[in-house]
Amino acid sequence: MRGWMGKFRSLLLFSALTLFLAGCGQENLSALKPEGYGAELLLDLMLISIAIMVFVFVIVMAIYFFVLVRYREKKGQEDFVPKQTEGNHTLEVIWTVIPIILLLVLAVPTVQATFDLADQSSQDEEGVLTVEVTGNQYWWHFNYEGQEIATSQELYIPVGERVYLDMKASDVIHSFWVPAIAGKMDTNPGENINTMYLEAYEEGVYWGHCAELCGPSHSLMDFRVVAVSPDKFEQWKEDMQNVDPEAEPETASAKEGQELFNNNCMSCHAIGGASAGVGPNLTNFGNRNKIAGILEPSKENLVDWIVHPDEIKPGNKMPANIVNKEEASKIADYLMGLKHTDVGTELDSVNKPKNDQ
Amino acid sequence: MSTAVAQKRGLGAAIWDYLTTVDHKKIAHLYLYAGGLFFLIGGLEAMIIRIQLMKPDNNFISAGLYNEMITMHGTTMIFLAAMPLIFALMNAVVPLQIGARDVAFPFLNSLGFWLFLFGGLMLNVSWFTGGAPDAGWTNYAPLSTTSPGHGVDYYVMGLQISGAGTLIGGINFLVTIVNMRAPGMTYMRMPLFTWSVFVTSTLILFAFPALTVGLFLMMFDRMFGSAFFDVGLGGNAIIWEHLFWIFGHPEVYILILPLFGAFSDIFSTFSKKRLFGYSAMVFATVLIGFLGFMVWAHHMFTVGMGPIANSIFAVATMAIAVPTGIKIFNWLFTMWGGQIKMTAAMLWSVAFIPSFTIGGMTGVMLAAAAADYQYHDTYFVVGHFHYVIVGGVVFGIFAALHYWWPKMFGIKLNEKLGKLAFWPFFVGFHLTFFIQHFLGLMGMPRRYWVFLEGQGLETGNMISTVGAFFMAIGTLIFVYNVIYSAKKEKKADGDAWGTGRTLEWAIPSPPPHYNFVQTPLVRGLDPLWVEKMDGKEGMTPAEPLGDIHMPNASFLPFMMSLGTFIAGFGFIYQVDNKAWLIAVFAGMGILLGSMLVRSVKDDLGHHIHKEEIEEDIKKGVAK
Amino acid sequence: MSHEDVLNPTKLPHDPEKATLEGKNKFLAFWFFLGGETVLFASLFGTYLALNGSTQGENTPEHLFGLELVFIMTMLLLTSSLTSVYAMYHMKNHDFGKMQKWLGITVALGFAFLGFEIYEFYHYIHEYGFTFRSSAFGSAFYTLVGFHGGHVLFGLSWIVTLMIRNQKRGLNLYNAPKFYIASLYWHFIDVVWVFIFTVVYLMGKVG
């Protein structure tokens, strides 16, 4: 009897400990460390619901342990027949009405938050940025409406402003999720466009995930949101609008790489303001945080990726062995040199957090 | 193994007996064996998933295989493990609890089982024929419609076949409960388990056809070139999500309600008290069933339905917490003032309360539509539904099996081993799934083949994997217990626990195949308890001793199911080679031919004569 | 009740379809089954309504449907429902011969309906090139109407089987429930058609 209870208590203690530890999570990734409007609103809503739930749970558990301890069959009383209670009206009314009240307390902020996050009233106002987001197997494309800017994998937004996202998918359903800034929204195929907005509070590189199963490399469809100050964002826009796709690289190897790239890769990829092709837009590739969304930005990784994309992201559409390793190395030189803007490069990425735990 | 008679006639005869049986008690055994086997397979898949997620960037299995694994784990556990195990309990118990000699349609009962089994086999054959389905158990289009190979085709055909079996079973139990109750067994005297089976069967009846249609559309898109989910031709992928969840949400209640019923019976039996607030419990069960149909879109908050639809479904979902809460409190107050006897069955039931309460609470958290934008499709959801399905359904199945094992097999499961199996499973369960809520919030989406290093997810995943091993140990001890008890435990009494309250405990364990020698007269809620309190030995009969009419065994259900199985392969492979249409015609021929035979050949059943019954009473196998 | 009483009753009761427990069970189960069928068709109607605008710019409902033909089909099926009522009326009066006759008429009307439906589909495919694969609308149309057609075919086979099987021995307590639920099925098919006529054809033609 003692042992049974003891084990149970230590389990509860353990749960509390876990709760404490997990309060952290990774900066710029965890929904528990909000750094944007949506994420903050939702964390508040979560905390309200958790508070209510803990309150109810404590009551249930108090009755539970009391009953289990008090009414265990005792030795020598095996033949005792307890009173056969039918029920109790007052009690039953209490545990029907109180939960209803608690749920109403939760329902009001829920409905408020739901409408708040669906608000699109300012989307058509002047100066409000809308980005067309397209989910593809297994990469993200971002097209800045009316700005002649297109990019993939890294979404730049100005801090402190609402940026609207008009989202769709080119193949299967994906889901756009940047936990530290906002909740997620599915991207559906066809003309079924969803709209949500992002508002980051602080500069930073925020990690994004695809959250709807979309094929073998679903877990490798990461992307980043780079939030920069409005001034820097203007600078970024200007840099991006003035990209010269044909610009000559400096080294000889990179020059050869450019030619190889133009001959072998341009049918799918693009550099500059062209919109989504079959593959990602590679503007500013040399300054990106990751290769293919997941790999550390080293030349070695890039060569591997170019030659064997299927081994790194199973099921993705980039064909393997279009070029050999040597050619890939030259293409890598060219791509790593594509540094069209410095904006955002000074920011810490998720894997190099500001205050390393 | 179940009856001495079968052993005497040899193995072949025993197999033939099971292939043709229409006896609800034997069908319960079949459901139990098949469901148990699939449960172990699904568990193995779960272990492989957890091993893959043990550490970051793990390469234990490939990305493609991982998706097959998660799909088959979910599909197997829901359709091939939980459903049949619940059907095993329904079959074993409901006719006994209402004082019937069998279900309303014994032939259909058998058909339901064989359809389920062949559907389940079909799904699992896919492992050996080029790959299992890989689009998740929810099988969203267009990922599923464009998935290469035949994996998803197996999903479609397998679930269609087993789903038909479930639907048949649902109708059967509805009619059984409405028409076959013993005299005096009014609706408000039915044991809670029977009540919950009644509500569950209603849910099956109205939910499964939506899945049937969804699967047909999926089949047409994949095999016959239609364009339901093909946006290129004007299709709409969201239709699948709606159809799937119109089925899928009630399915959750289909799974949990019968176990709510079982818990009610168990709490009451082992507290020696009548169920507290019986009518409120019945009302809550019906209300949960009803609300279960109004909330399917809460699985789709992030699909883009707009704030109005999201809010409505959010509030409707929260409402379900009220009847569920009523149940929790009624269980607690059933034990209050009682005499709690901590058997293995009771242990599982007692453990269910906190576990399920947590699952229910995270359910309310998920219902908050906006907050779900963070939870949706993350490990938070994985944690939540495992708390409900493992902490509710699986705990319930273990509890119910311990409780009714003597009635099903004539022996109790060993109590010590039962408790020994409980502890690692219980601890492992909380280790595995509690941490997953946090993993989700820390940014880990569900169905992720790998998580990257340095994202703070390492510890949580490791704990979760360790917990899974504990659960596996618990399960293995339970399996060992089944074998051990079959050999060592001695025959159980009719009223195996001594405190039985309902009709099934009034007859021998296991009951004779006609169950009741004389249909009992029911004089109140908990009829056996009523008689005991009046100082009587057993039930008062409602009819004189006489011949008993029983249904005939039949091989046709097996044949019909085999026909659908063969036709299923035909449908899948005619895409590659039209010669496979032969299999379609052959399979459908077997099916329709068997149906024709069933229609034109009279089957009036047979009578067991009074003398035989008197003989049984003398031998002590009937009462 | 002995087998003899069921198969060769000396006197049939007024409701022979509900005189035995098996009959009562069948009767109730079939109503439940029709409840499930209702959800099945509701799902198909929902799908159709979601997709009936997705015509890919050609072969719209207005363009395709001819109400004359569909009107004749509707009349055939409605009449067949009425004749099956007559058949059941004669069953309750224990007049097996007349029951078979009216069932025969029901079946004939059903086959005529089916013939027209096959003609209709053939016509769309060959005159308009409108197929199951043309567009999401095509898929939804053929699936909804085809499912109904499949039900008609199954119902016809069922009733014909029952008629042939029992031709010689006449009505008893064993086959009366079978006839009765077959006629229930037939009514259900008829009701579904009324919805198809309204939702698919009338609404398709009007707007």
Automatic annotation (TrEMBL), chain A:
It is a multi-pass membrane protein. Pfam families: COX2, COX2_TM, Cytochrom_C. GO terms for cellular component: plasma membrane. SUPFAM superfamilies: Cupredoxins (SSF49503), Cytochrome c (SSF46626), Cytochrome c oxidase subunit II-like, transmembrane region (SSF81464). GO terms for molecular function: copper ion binding; cytochrome-c oxidase activity; heme binding; oxidoreductase activity. The chain crosses the membrane at residues 41-69, 90-111. Residues 126-239 form the Cytochrome oxidase subunit II copper A binding domain. Residues 23-121 form the Cytochrome oxidase subunit II transmembrane region profile domain. Its main location: membrane. InterPro entries: CcO_II, CcO_II-like_C, Copper_CuA, Cupredoxin, CuRO_CcO_Caa3_II, Cyt_c-like_dom, Cyt_c-like_dom_sf, Cyt_c_oxidase_su2. Binds a copper A center. Its EC number is 7.1.1.9. It is found in: Cell membrane; Membrane. One of its GO terms (biological process) is ATP synthesis coupled electron transport. Keywords: Copper, Electron transport, Heme, Iron, Membrane, Metal-binding, Respiratory chain, Translocase, Transmembrane, Transmembrane helix, Transport. NCBIfam families: CoxB (TIGR02866). This is Cytochrome c oxidase subunit 2. The gene is coxB.
UniProtKB/TrEMBL annotation, chain C:
Residues 1-205 form the Heme-copper oxidase subunit III family profile domain. Keywords: Cell membrane, Membrane, Transmembrane, Transmembrane helix. GO terms for cellular component: plasma membrane. It holds the Pfam family COX3. InterPro entries: Cyt_c/ubiquinol_Oxase_su3 (IPR024791), Cyt_c_oxidase-like_su3 (IPR000298), Cyt_c_oxidase_su3-like_sf (IPR035973), Cyt_c_oxidase_su3_a-hlx (IPR013833), Ubiquinol_oxase_su3_dom (IPR033946). The chain crosses the membrane at residues 28-49, 69-89, 101-119, 139-164, 184-204. GO terms for biological process: aerobic electron transport chain. It is found in: Cell membrane. It comes from the Bacteria. Its main location: membrane. GO terms for molecular function: cytochrome-c oxidase activity. It is a multi-pass membrane protein. Belongs to the cytochrome c oxidase subunit 3 family. This is Cytochrome (Ubi)quinol oxidase subunit III. It comes from Halobacillus yeomjeoni. The lineage of its organism: Bacteria, Bacillati, Bacillota, Bacilli, Bacillales.
